[in-house]
Each structure stands twice: as C-alpha cells, then as structure tokens.
Amino acid sequence: MIQPEFIIQALNEAKAEKGITVGGSGPQGPSAPAEKKDVEWSSERKSADLIVAYGAERGKPEARVGFVLERSGFADWKLTAIRMPS
User: Fold this and answer.
1) DSSP label at residue 53
2) How does DSSP classify residue 52?
3) HSE-CB of 81 using CA atoms within 13 angstroms
4) Can you tell me the distance from the alpha carbon of 29 to that of 40, in angstroms, rounded to the nearest whole number?
5) What is the pTM of this model?
6) Whose CB among 2, 13, 24, 42 lies 3.0–4.6 Å from 37's, allowing a Cys bridge?
7) Each residue's pLDDT tens digit in the chain (86 positions)?
C-alpha cells in the first residue's frame, strides 16, 4: 500500500526521497512543505483505456516518474502503478 505522502511528493517533485515510506509504519514525509520543483509533464497513450503520465524535474529527463492510469467505466481513471526511475 502506498501512502498519500509518497504520491504527493512524486507529483510535486517528480521523485520520491527517503523518509516517505511505501506501506506499513515508519517515518512520515517532511513536516514543513519543501520548495516546489519545476516539473515537466508528458504523457503516452498505450491504449484507449491506459495512459502513462511522466513527470521529470526540468533538465533531468532521465530521472522521470511514470504514473499509470487505467480507465474504469466511462470517465473514471484510477492510478494502477507508479514507475520509478532506475
């Protein structure tokens, strides 16, 4: 299970840093809001029901985070996976 703090950081900064845990208990995200990063977004449609949205910090396209969104029904999209940079 992925914690909301992990998703928020990945969306705002196009990366996930240590301290944000994936499932279970453990340290939570930073208590003070971090400086907002300049993130560039692009998307790739895999099929009519599957889109991958990529976010990368400006000037660092090799370290992009992918959000896999799958359509459920007519207009309901669900986050089904997160692709982290290697």
Assistant:
1) E
2) E
3) 8
4) 23
5) 0.66
6) 13
7) 567 787 887 788 777 655 544 444 444 444 445 566 688 889 999 999 999 999 888 887 777 888 999 999 888 999 998 888 77
